[in-house]
């Protein structure tokens, strides 16, 4: 294991409380398998190409899918964000994530939406995100590529952490409804007006300069190749991959 990535004991101590319970016989080493999952997602490999040091690739893949369905990785992300403390100033934005040709199907099968949509750039998904004043992801939400920023904001803004005092967004969030909602929550909206607005409201442009932090956050997430490009049709494993990347980039990195 010397030449491949391996989670440290301190990282495992923070992850272990959220692991799924083992049934039947003893489970394959969590540290080795989870290290393989992180390695595959970061490097954009096919599961069958995972290094032999992580064990059988089917074991690595099955653990990822099973824990994804059990929302283990979602709980890890929520826990590490809460442990890191809350910021009074948050930023909101959205980015398109390209869908690989192997998932180029809009046919919905089953009860859960795939969150893949067609735009002028082809098939993709949108990651709506909120980050804190240090550029760390706080809330993440996935939709189809043709969904507007407003609909993503409707989900994220209703789930803002307590104590939020300011929200920074670009012109895409210049909506009377969004600003009215933030005022009702005693939150200051730092959103520049659209160019076609007749009555242009003022905003704190000094504070708005901080918005580059969320652009940097997206850039760091897309350094993980299975986040930058979507290789799976099902939405929940893709969202789990995003949560894994966000957890290790911003909270578990040593």
Approximate helicity band? 25-40%
Number of helices: 10
Query: Can you name the CATH architecture of the largest domain?
Result: 2-Layer Sandwich
The total beta strand count reads: 7
Q: Summarize the main sheet.
A: 7 strands, mixed
Percent strand equals 15-25%
**So what's the CATH class of the largest domain?**
Alpha Beta
SSE ordering: HHHHEEEEHEHEHHHEH
CATH topology tier name of the largest domain:
Nucleotidyltransferase, domain 5
* Rg from Cα: 19 Å
Report the end-to-end length measured between terminal Cα atoms.
18 Å
Number of domains: 2
Mean pLDDT: 90
What can you see in these coordinates?
The protein is α/β, with parallel strands linked by helices. The protein folds into 2 domains: 9-70, no CATH class; 86-232, 2-Layer Sandwich (Nucleotidyltransferase, domain 5), CATH 3.30.420. It is built from 10 helices and 7 strands. The protein has helices spanning 9-15, 30-43, 57-69, 72-83, 149-157, 176-184, 205-208, 212-221, 225-228, 235-250, and strands spanning 89-99, 117-119, 122-131, 137-144, 166-168, 188-190, 229-230. Strands 1, 2, 3, 4, 5, 6 and 7 form a 7-stranded mixed β-sheet that branches. The two termini are 18 Å apart. The model has no long low-confidence stretch (mean pLDDT 90).
């Amino acid at each position: 294991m010397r030449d491949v990535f391996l989670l440290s004991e301190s990282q495992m101590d923070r992850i272990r409380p959220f692991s799924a319970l083992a049934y039947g016989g003893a489970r394959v080493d969590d540290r080795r398998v989870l290290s393989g999952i992180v390695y595959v997602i970061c490097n954009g490999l096919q599961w069958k190409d995972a290094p032999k040091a992580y064990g059988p690739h089917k074991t690595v893949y099955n653990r990822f899918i099973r824990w994804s369905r059990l929302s283990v990785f979602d709980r890890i992300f929520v826990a590490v964000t809460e442990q890191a403390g809350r910021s009074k100033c948050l930023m909101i934005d959205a980015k398109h994530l390209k869908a690989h040709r192997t998932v180029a199907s809009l046919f919905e099968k089953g009860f859960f939406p795939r969150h893949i949509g067609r735009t002028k750039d082809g098939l993709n998904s949108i990651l709506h995100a909120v980050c804190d004043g240090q550029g760390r992801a706080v809330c993440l939400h996935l939709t189809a590529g043709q969904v507007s920023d407003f609909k993503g904001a409707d989900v994220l803004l209703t789930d803002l952490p307590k104590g939020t005092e300011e929200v920074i967004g670009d012109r895409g969030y210049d909506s009377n409804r969004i600003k009215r909602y933030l005022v009702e929550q005693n939150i200051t909206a730092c959103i520049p007006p659209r160019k076609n607005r007749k009555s242009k409201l003022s905003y704190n442009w000094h504070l708005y300069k901080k918005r580059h932090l969320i652009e940097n956050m997206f850039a760091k997430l897309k350094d993980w190749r299975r986040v930058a490009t979507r290789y799976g049709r099902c939405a929940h494993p893709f969202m789990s991959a995003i949560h894994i990347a966000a957890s290790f980039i911003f909270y578990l990195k040593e």
